[in-house]
Amino acid sequence: MAYLLDANVFIQAKNLQYGFDFCPAFWDWLTHSHAAHKLRSIRQVGDELLAGADELADWADVQGDAFFVPTDASVLAAAPAVSAWVLQQGFEPAAINTFLQVADFWLIAAALAGHHTVVTHEVPSPTLKRIKIPNVCVGLGIGFANPYQMLRREQARFVLDQGAP
Q1: Would you say 144 and 137 are in contact if contact means Cβ atoms under 8 Å apart?
Q2: Residues facing residue 37 across a β-bridge
Q3: What pTM did the predictor assign?
């Protein structure tokens, strides 16, 4: 089992708490944790990041398909269970159409296929106008966490060197 990271984890980290310019340790931790088979994401998330044409896109490009894993047969086999659950919940048709076309759908299918925990900044919501990752995770029995929960569980440490200013 590994953590599967949603695009918003990377985007918010870059824009807020863990900017490349002042917290490179976060990005190093992601790379090292991936090498230890603790986390990854999916190609569709990687594609979203690459579309940004910024330093996050550059970082994602370096990580490649090893980090942003392509869809495989097990994910394709899990996808019908995700879509069936979504179709049975009474979501508005526009919400369903959107969800089935974005990375969130594939992220959840990959989590279901591999028994992974989804990491996202999204929180559960009772709305029928937008399908939220945590709601689908709960409905399908998939674990989910926010990035801070993941960092704590994995005992991430971003400590300055003793000689650093």
Answers
A1: yes
A2: none
A3: 0.96
